[in-house]
Amino acid sequence: MDMELLAPVGNMESLKVAIYNGADAIYLGIRQYNARNNIDGFSLDTLGEAVEFAHLYGVKVYLALNILFKDSELQDALDVVVEANNKGVDAFIIQDLGLAYLIHTYYPSIELHASTQMAVHNLEGVRVLEKLGFKRVVLARETSIDEIKRITDNSDIEIEFFVQGALCVSFSGNCYMCSHLVGKSGNRGVCQQFCRLPYTFESGDIKRHGFLLSAKDINMLDQLKELKRLGVKSLKIEGRARRPFYVAQACKIYRDMLDFGKYSNHDLDMLKIAFNREYTPAYFNGNANIISQIQGNNGLLIGEVKRVNNGNKFNEVYITSNYDLKGKCGLKFIYNGEEIASIGAHDVKRVGNLYRITTTSNIRVGSKVHIIQDEVLEQELLGNIKKLPIKIDFEATPNQPIKIVATYGDIKLSVEGEICQSAKTIAIAREQILKQLSRSDIFEVVDFNCNINNCYILNSSLNKLRNNIYNKLHQKIIKKYQKNILNKINIDKISILSTITNQNKEFNFEIINNINELNNIKKSNNIIFDYNNFNTEDIKIFDNYCKANNINGYIDIPNFATFKDINLINVALKQTDLGVVANNLYALTFDCKMLGGQFLNIYNSYTLHVLNKLHDFDAMFVEELTNAEMDSLQTDIPLIKRERVYMTLLHCPYKQNLKCDCATCKYDEATYEINSGKKFNVKRKKTSTCVFLLKD
Q1: Any long-range contacts for 187-195 (C-beta under 8 Å, 24+ apart)?
Q2: Helix 44-56 vs helix 71-86: angle between axes, to the nearest 10 degrees?
Q3: Model confidence over 364-405: pLDDT tens digits?
Q4: Spatial separation of the C-alpha atoms in residues 651 and 426, rounded to whole Å
Q5: Which residues of 191-214 are buried (b: 16+ CB within 10 A; e: fewer)?
């Protein structure tokens, strides 16, 4: 199986360098609806140009409409899908279940890819996506080796997996911190990256301060063979908001690894310079150490500060380094593990065995020096372009039309030009013809056969002939990707929601975290057991209490679950009459009564409709909608809010901050505090696997 290299593009320059450096497919967003709304991106007006350029090089284009939509936005979103399809987009990356339902129901020819924001990470979740018409799933970055193998062994759905770029500290990007703190939702494409700020972790008498929630970057160059063995179809690079040099360098090094099974240390160094927050294979081999000590680009360590001469205006900094430092480079200085300065160095000079730079920043002797930009090497890579290799057969005979045949792959085209004239003095040379035919930004003549006999041909005639044949070849190539033209529909006329209204049904409930809290239960018809530590005996006690008191009991199951976790939950459900709070799509495969958890990310009436088609729900919890937005949804299912959750952590904050492991676990009450003074309580939820929630 050939693995696809999928590159991020935030603008036309990034698109071109991704293609020139080996991408098989690219993904992009348009300004209205994508999870990177902080970049210029593309618009519907410029999308056609981007798609045509990619298709010319045989590269597929996936449009990310990977945010959640409100009812009032779905018509426009669906119209965008139709227009983008008609411009040639090959597939759509979707998070919103309501939008996915509308697309698959009314435009079944459109290819759907499930965004990683859906947080699908096990076979059970994949089976739900199969029912909904998805051809591909972008698995959560937290998905383990064993679970990838379990999916590919038991499903034909295509698997896409992130191998390079930013890692969200909150499980699969489902973070609500920005939404709850400043009303800017990451699920709506306006993440404010609160995770990149400093925090204080406190547990008992221990305090730690630093960038404690700032995750490293993923780098899985050394795991590509394993991913291929597991049956992964597409290797995804993250970075639509990063510079074109990063995109180019990432594509180049992963292309080499795919084609030749190796990469150069030089290219890895260049990738680090382009951007990294330290590298990690993330959760691929278990609960990894994913937190970086540096908030921004860590670059490449190249030396150390040996001497500083402080002046009135400028300070002279002397650096020892084996790196070939030139002017126009960016340097970062780190002292005792903390960044103290980042500067642009433009006057680098060699003084003996040291480099001297001048700066207004205060730099300490002993600081580690990291290079974060090398403009000379950047321009070298960005200056490389890729052309399509073609064969040209050229024939010119006096008193006959000039004939040219162009061949590219299995495409062969011919055109005729003006009547050729006999040369009265000097005949045109083969080299002159080739020179004129080589003037193209797209095509490169690699095989040239020329049959001429004492001919006189104007350069203008050759240029006209060249433009004619190349334009026809261009159109013939992209015609292979031509899509069936679809017509827009008016979803107001779709009848699936017409009989449903929000009846605002009451649903009273209480939540307990351990069995002892049953003694304090008030008169509620529904009790949710939001366990801290899964225990079969506790589950049975809870079930017996519910039966004895004629109460509906539900187990609040985690939004992340391994195969072992799912088996534990399944056994408990078979032995009791309990239901579950479904916090992830995998839970919809359980045969029991069910509440919809807040992590199902309900935003519109169609999402509610889809979920209710998959399973009957007694009630639904929502996380981000206002009361007014909840009241506007068309559903007869009670919609409720519960306590806020800001993040779900799958790395262990106790292991990270208290330097323990599972055998010496120091789990206790703990908090993270942001500089504003806001504290987040850490709740551990352990099935067989630990999940940590940051809550009020």
Answers
A1: 187/67, 187/68, 187/95, 187/117, 187/601, 187/603, 187/624, 188/67, 188/68, 189/33, 189/34, 189/35, 189/36, 189/37, 189/67, 190/37, 190/38, 191/35, 194/674, 195/168, 195/169, 195/170, 195/647
A2: 40
A3: 999 999 999 999 999 999 999 999 999 999 999 999 999 999
A4: 77
A5: bbebbeeebebbbeeeebebbbbb
Q: Strands 639-641, 25-28: parallel, antiparallel or unpaired by DSSP?
A: unpaired
Scan for tokens 């004492």, then name that residue: 454
Domains annotated on the chain, with CATH: 4-167+216-280 (3.20.20.70), 300-382 (2.40.30), 388-479 (no CATH), 493-647 (3.20.20)
- Give the containing element (helix H, strand E) for 103: helix 97-106
pLDDT value, residue 691: 96
Angle, vertex CA 288, rays to CA 287 and CA 294, nearest 5: 140
pTM score over 0.90: yes
The overall average pLDDT reported for the chain is 93
Work out whether strand 645-649 and strand 679-686 pair parallel, antiparallel, or are unpaired.
Answer: unpaired
Three-state DSSP class for residue 406:
strand
DSSP E strand stretches across 420-483: 421-422, 443-452, 455-456
Q: Six-digit token pair at 403?
A: 């004939």
Identify any residues that bridge with 407 across adjacent strands, giving them in sequence order. 391, 412
Residue (of 208, 319, 344, 308) closest to 656 by Cα position: 208
DSSP E strands in 517-562: the ranges are 526-529, 552-556
User: Could you give the count of Cα atoms lying within 13 Å of 275 in the half-sphere of its Cβ?
Assistant: 22
